[in-house]
Write a structure and sequence with these properties.
The chain is mostly helical and 1044 residues long. Helices cover 93% and strands 0% of the residues. It has a domain of 246 residues. The chain is rod-shaped, with a radius of gyration of 73 Å. The N terminus is likely disordered. Keywords: Coiled coil. It comes from Oncorhynchus mykiss.
Length: 1044
């Protein structure tokens, strides 16, 4: 715009300017004065240099402002950190105090519980001593009763031996009676049978052999009785010694196992104590870490919330201050503009008065007015652009810009019209020019007045609105501060004195400009302290409630666990009793089955003996029949010889002799065969007897083994189950009372032990079942073999008897056919007599055999029943003693475990209290040192920060004073620009060009450049004008000093 104005200025005025010779002649001189290109170049160079210097100064100023802002932010952050640190220390101290109080309460409670538990332990020890004394007395009584019972058993055994002796005497007397009877029978037989001496001798021989066998059986029975008595006595003594040794060994083994178990238990308890310590330490560290993390999170959250609030409040304050400053700057600009417009009006009046004075200066005034209008247009455009760039009252600025543009267009059109009129009408130029200037002056005055009025209204409205907003913001902030002060006042009562001292020290070191900020920080700290105190109280109450709930829950769990353990012990005792009863029942059933087996074996033996007796009788009968048959044959031979001598027909004797010879041969064959059968039968009977004895021995061994196995299994199983159940229940009780977190392991162990017990019981039961099944199968197989052998022997004997009977019947029929009818009656009577005798002897022998067999069988049965009764009594007594012993062991183990648990609990509580007290002391020392170090660090930081802030405030004050001074210079230069346009136009052009350049720069750069350009402009002024300006500036500065 300047170059266009400069190019248009030297143009000729037009074709109608010939009449104005004077003005046209003066124009070259004016242009020469106005446009001194050399001077213009120098000024431009100086301006360029000044702009560079100003730009460097502006960059330095920006850097300083950025450093100031960074320092202020750092100061605020450090203040926030200090406040948060003090808050955290207060919270930590409060938490530690609460923790100390809780630990003291727990210590007191533990001491009370320890005292109560000690009293209970003493009472329990007295009860245990009394129970042990009672158990010892009961054991002594039981031993006395056992001794009496053994004495009674010895007496009964002695009585039984006496009874057996009497029975043997009776048996001897019976044998003597049998001998007497045999003698009588022998005499009768001698009297009756004179011819059957050989038979009678043989029979007597047999009877004597039987008597000898009876005597031998008697002697053997006596020997067996004595041996049985000795064996019974030895066996009883051996069993007693073994039982004593077994009891002593079991007692030693139980003591040894008990010692080993208690040693392992002590090791386990020590390990569990160490594990408990480690777990408690880990839990304490974990709890502390979680508590610290939770506190850090809460602090972080609270610090972020407070930081956001403070940042928001600061942002709002900064915005309000910016708006206030902008409004102030706008008002100052409006005032400057009003002054400029007033000065322009005065200059316009002077120019109009100068123009009315003469026609010669019309063209010069028109040119000057044109240039002024151009400058105003540029100035208005720059101002409009500046207003648009700042964005304040955009609507008003747009309206003003449009109006100013319209006015500029009107002025330009009016200027052209004036030029045309001046070129066309030289005579009316002065009048028209005067009218135009008057109308222009009136329009400019009206427009400027309207604009000023409008801008004043707008400024007042904005000022009122800003004031209202500021007051509302101040009220809102005040309300918020009061609310926060009321809410946080309760939390900062304990640290108020310390913070008051710190605030006083800070007040002494901080400048007056930071007092409000310190007060706000103090209030915020008080509020934060109160809030944290309330939070600490709430946390304390919550922790106390949680501790009470946890204590109640643990107590309930302990009661429930105690009840459950009692139920489990009761169930275990009932289960053990049931198992003992079941095992006793099984033992009784096994004894019953053994008795049944023995009875069956005895029945089989009796049946075999009966078969043997029947076979012997049949053999005797067959022998008698053979003897009778031989006698008849010999008698028939004698009869046949008599008949042959008497002269019977010649054909009968040889046939009879031949037949007799055949009969003799058949008899010999029959006798030989009978001898062979007898030998084979004897061999079979001896084999059967040996097999029977072997089977009886096997059955007795199996019975003894089964009895011993059942007794041993019952005792071992009962001992193991009771010990295991007692130990398991004690282990479970101790582990559950001491360590709750090992519940799963103990349950798993219990399940495993129960599974092992059940598996062992199942295996033992299966083993017993398999043994019993094998024994029954063996017995059945042996019984079947014996029965089969006996049946085969009986069948063969029956078959042979039938064959012999058939042969005898054939022989008798032949003899009867051959014998005469005369001797039939005699032979029949003799045969009948012989048969009767044989039958009598057979019956007598049968009775004797039955008596001889029944007597040892009865004795054996009586001995067997007595032994079974003694075994049953002994088993019952051993079972009862075992139950008493297990019950006493269980009680002793429970008492021992209770005492050990009480000792462990007291030791653990003592160690725990010592650790807690030591930890509390360490925490107190650490807290004291930490608070001292934090106080020293805070003092040092605050001192450094306040020194830095003081230096920064001094520098900022110096910078503000410099800026104020520059602002005053710029105002003065702006007010005197129009005043010196006529006299100093050569000096104005570079100054105006610098102003146009400064309009494009930022605000802080334009202020410094304006100051430098104003100094440059003063250097170009004449001496008188410069002195006048300096005097005005000094007077203005003196007026403003009191205000500053």
């Amino acid at each position: 715009m300047m170059s266009s104005g400069a190019g248009k200025a030297p143009q000729p005025p037009g074709p109608g300017s010939g009449s104005l010779n004077g003005t046209a002649a003066d124009l070259p001189n004016i242009e020469q004065e106005l446009y001194d290109y050399q001077m213009h170049g120098k000024m431009c160079k100086k301006i360029a240099q000044l702009t560079k210097v100003i730009y460097s100064l502006n960059t330095k100023n920006e850097e300083q402002e950025a450093a100031l802002q960074a320092v202020s932010h750092a100061h605020q952050e450090e203040l926030r950190q200090v406040t948060t640190g003090t808050c955290t220390e207060g919270e930590e101290s409060a938490v530690l105090r609460t923790r100390l109080s809780e630990l003291q309460e727990t210590l007191a409670q533990v001491q009370v519980e320890f005292e109560s538990y000690r009293v209970q332990a003493e009472e329990r020890d007295r009860g245990v001593e009394a129970e042990l004394r009672r158990d010892y007395e009961e054991k002594l009584q039981a031993l006395g009763l056992e001794r009496q019972e053994t004495q009674a058993q010895l007496n009964t055994a002695h009585d039984e031996s006496l009874r057996l002796g009497r029975e043997l005497e009776t048996a001897g007397e019976a044998a003597q009676c049998l001998e007497v009877q045999c003698d009588e029978l022998r005499r009768k037989g001698e009297e009756e049978r004179g011819k059957g001496k050989e038979e009678e001798t043989e029979r007597m021989r047999l009877l004597s052999e039987e008597v000898k066998t009876l005597r031998k059986g008697k002697e053997r029975a006596e020997e067996e009785r004595e041996r049985a008595g000795r064996e019974e006595r030895e066996k009883w003594e051996r069993e007693r010694a073994e039982r004593e040794e077994r009891e002593e060994w079991e007692r030693e083994r139980a003591v040894r196992e008990e010692r080993e178990k208690w040693e392992t238990r002590v090791k386990e308890v020590t390990e569990e104590k160490e594990e408990l310590k480690r777990s408690m330490e880990e839990a304490r560290r974990e709890e502390r870490r979680q508590w610290e993390e939770r506190e850090e999170e809460e602090k972080r959250g609270m610090s972020t919330v407070l930081r956001e609030r403070v940042r928001k409040a600061e942002g709002e304050l900064e915005d309000s201050l910016k708006r206030l400053n902008e409004s102030k700057r706008h008002a100052a600009k409006l005032q400057d503009r009003i002054q400029d417009l007033e000065e322009e009006l005065e200059s316009g009046r002077r120019r109009v008065s100068g123009a009315e004075g003469g026609a010669k200066r019309a063209w010069e005034e028109l040119v000057v007015a044109k240039e002024r209008l151009l400058l105003q247009e540029e100035e208005l455009q720059s101002k409009s652009e500046e207003l648009l760039s700042r964005g304040v009252c955009e609507g008003c600025v747009c309206v003003n810009v449009e109006e100013l543009k319209g006015q500029v267009n009107k002025l330009q059109s009016r200027n052209r019209e004036l030029e045309i009129q001046s070129s066309g009408r030289n005579n009316d130029y002065a009048r028209q020019h005067a009218e135009a200037l008057a109308s222009l002056r009136s329009e400019m005055v009206r427009a400027q007045s309207e604009e000023l009025r409008r801008e004043r209204k707008h400024a007042e409205v904005e000022k009122e609105q800003m004031q209202k907003e500021r007051e509302e913001e101040r009220d809102r902030l005040q309300k918020e501060r009061e609310e926060e002060r009321d809410r946080l006042q309760k939390e900062r009562e304990e640290e108020r004195e310390r913070l008051q001292k710190e605030i006083e020290e800070v007040k002494g070191r901080v400048m007056e400009g930071n007092t409000e900020r310190v007060e706000e920080q103090r209030e915020s700290l008080n509020q934060e302290k109160k809030r944290l105190k309330e939070q600490a109280d709430e946390e304390r109450r919550r922790l106390k409630e949680q501790a009470d709930e946890e204590r109640r829950r643990l107590k309930e769990q302990a009661d429930e666990e105690r009840r459950r353990l009692k139920e489990q012990v009761k169930k275990a005792i009932e289960e053990v009793m049931r198992k003992h009863a079941a095992e006793l029942h099984n033992a009784q059933e096994a004894l019953r089955t053994n008795q049944e087996v023995c009875v069956r074996v005895q029945e089989d033996r009796r049946s075999g003996e009966e078969v043997c007796r029947r076979l012997e009788t049949e053999r005797e009968e067959l022998r008698d029949q053979l003897q009778q048959a031989t006698n008849q044959i010999w008698r028939l031979e004698g009869v046949i010889q008599q008949q042959s001598q008497g002269g019977v027909a010649s054909e009968t004797p040889p046939t009879c002799g031949i037949h007799c010879s055949h009969l003799r041969e058949d008899l010999q064959h029959i006798q030989e065969e009978m001898e062979r059968q007898r030998e084979s039968y004897q061999k079979e009977m001896t084999g059967l007897r040996t097999d029977k004895q072997r089977l009886e021995e096997k059955v007795l061994e199996l019975n003894q083994q089964t009895q011993e196995n059942t007794d041993r299994n019952v005792l071992e199983h009962n001992q193991e189950n009771t010990d295991r159940n007692v130990l398991e229940h004690n282990q479970e009780n101790t582990d559950r009372n001491v360590l709750e977190h090992n519940q799963e392991n103990t349950d798993r162990n219990v399940l495993e032990h129960n599974q092992e017990n059940t598996d062992r019981n199942v295996l033992e039961h299966n083993q017993e079942n398999t043994d019993e099944r094998i024994r029954s199968e063996c017995e059945e197989r042996l019984r079947a073999e014996l029965k089969a052998e006996l049946d085969a022997a009986v069948a063969t004997s029956n078959q042979r008897e039938q064959e012999l009977q058939t042969q005898l019947a054939d022989l008798q029929s032949q003899v009867e056919r051959k014998a005469g009818p005369a001797e039939g009656h005699h032979d029949d009577s003799e045969i009948d007599r012989l048969r009767r005798e044989v039958q009598e002897t057979r019956d007598m022998n049968q009775r004797l055999r039955e008596q001889l067999q029944e007597e040892p069988q009865r004795h054996s049965e009586e001995r067997h029943t007595a032994a079974l009764q003694a075994l049953e009594r002994r088993a019952q007594e051993e079972l009862q003693t075992e139950r008493n012993r297990l019950h006493t062991l269980h009680l002793l183990q429970l008492d021992k475990q209770g005492t050990e648990l009480s000792q462990q609990y007291t030791e653990w509580s003592r160690q725990l209290t010592q650790r807690h007290m030591k930890h509390i002391e360490d925490l107190q020392t650490e807290l004291h040192t930490h608070t001292e170090m934090m106080a020293l660090q805070q003092d040092l930081k605050q001192q450094n920060q306040y020194q830095v802030f003081e230096r920064q405030l001094d520098e900022s004050r110096c910078a503000v004073l410099e800026l104020q001074r520059e602002n005053t210079v710029l105002r003065y230069t702006h007010t005197h620009t129009d005043r010196h346009t006529h006299t100093h136009t050569p000096h104005l052009i570079p100054f105006l060009s610098s102003l146009l350049f400064l309009s494009t720069l930022p605000r802080y750069a334009s202020s410094t450049l304006l100051y430098s350009s104003s100094l440059l402009f003063l250097s170009t002024l004449p001496g008188r004008e410069r002195r006048r300006w300096e005097e005005k500036e000094s007077r203005r500065r003196e007026r403003r000093k009191p205000n500053d």
